Predict the structure of C2H2-type domain-containing protein.
Amino acid sequence: MKLACFLLIMVICNAEQVPQRESVEQPISMTAVYGKHLRLLAVPEADLLIAAIVASVRRFKDADFSSPWLAGPYDILIPISNSSANTGALIKPMDTEVWICIALSVPAVIASLIGLSKCINALNKRIGSIKPIENNSGAGSIQIIDYVVCVILSQAFEKEMVKKTSNRIRNERWLQDARFMHKHLDLHLVDLLEKKKISEVLEFIGNPKHLYDVVLGQLIAQKVPKVDEEWVTFINHLKQAITINAALATNVVKGRAQTFVDQLRNEFLNGYLQSEHLASAFLIDCTGEYEDCDSEDKMEFQEMCLSSLMQILNDTKSPNNQQDFAMELSPQVVKNMKTLNDPAALPRCGASCRMCGSLCIETANHDTNLRPHDAIHQPGGVAGMHLIENLKLDYSTCSQAYECDATFTLGNDQQDHKFRNFDKVFPGWKNPRINEELPVREYILATHNEDLAKKYKLKPCADIPSSFFRDLATVKEQLKRELQN
Ligand SMILES: [Zn+2]
Ligand SMILES: [Zn+2]
């Protein structure tokens, strides 16, 4: 609480009123100038005192006060209860976590603002780069076409690359032959095993569709044509189409802009590129918008069409990283294959065996009434298949269980089912009759028995066949040989 100001003043002794020294020993009767130092004036042992003194009426009686030399605020400290007299009272209402969040959010906000400003700058630059086109094209320009071309150019190129890649892979054995693809999947697992990425391997076995998608994506990416070369070809075809059609449109007396647009659309749809995507971008109605194009000089119109569009084509950069572009393109290739649904070029069905987790070997979208799901069933233990009586992982496959007329239960359902009724318990599935050796899966069960038991909260398999204990390098060599043949 602010009470008063302190005054640093000089007190000069008023000699006439100052008592004699002897009297100082009796302070009460001698002077009204109180205080340890003030008393020295009264004695008088001092002629002058420089100190912080609060001037009062009584003191004015005994001494002359000079003007204050220095003035400042006075504060009074009052003791208060513990609950509120706490220097942490400011931070107390919030937890440490809240303060940490506040501390972290400050740089995050700053970073966001910096990022936002960069985006705005980039956008401004982009807008800036389009402006000269507007100026060049002048009145009656067909800016909307420029804009459309700019926006859809990269999309059309991607579509073109999807188409080319799909054509390139349609005869690949890994696309046609499920067993061959399975060897690629196993080779991928072997690579991870060599790098000691065991948990990743076990995750992939538990989610075989994901493993398939990853490996398929890598195989497709290797087949994506060279982006740089393809981009040049693509742009050259576009330039050619624009040049020819701009020249043709000048011969029309009325509706030049519309003719130009229509011809381009036709060219993109039926010409070399055969791009529906590119053609759809030219579904533009120019009625009432570009009549002034008709009054322009032929050369002027042609120049207008060419200069702006060519500039966009020259300015648009090709995707610069082959690997990144290819990896991003792969899922689109897969999607395209599924959409086209050409039986000759389809990825695999994503279904997997409910018991052992093996992936269906049929193609995507297969009609299960005509061709039910089927799989090369793996040793069930790798996917958590276990014996109900002792919770130990099982080394046998669904096919072996079928052969020996074994039974199984599903999850919490205590009802016993026969493997012989596999196709009835799992509608849409074939009975498990394919019995083929899967060396990598056997190796995984034998070598990572404990890891698998831990993952599925079960007990390790107790009686793994000795043939499962393989040498990984030998397994890998064999896989590679089979893939090369
Ligand atoms: Zn199975
Ligand atoms: Zn299937």
Residues 96-137 form the longest helix (42 residues). The two ends are 93 Å apart (CA to CA). Residues 268 and 446 are 58 Å apart (CA to CA). Confidence is low (pLDDT under 50) at residues 1-33, 123-141.
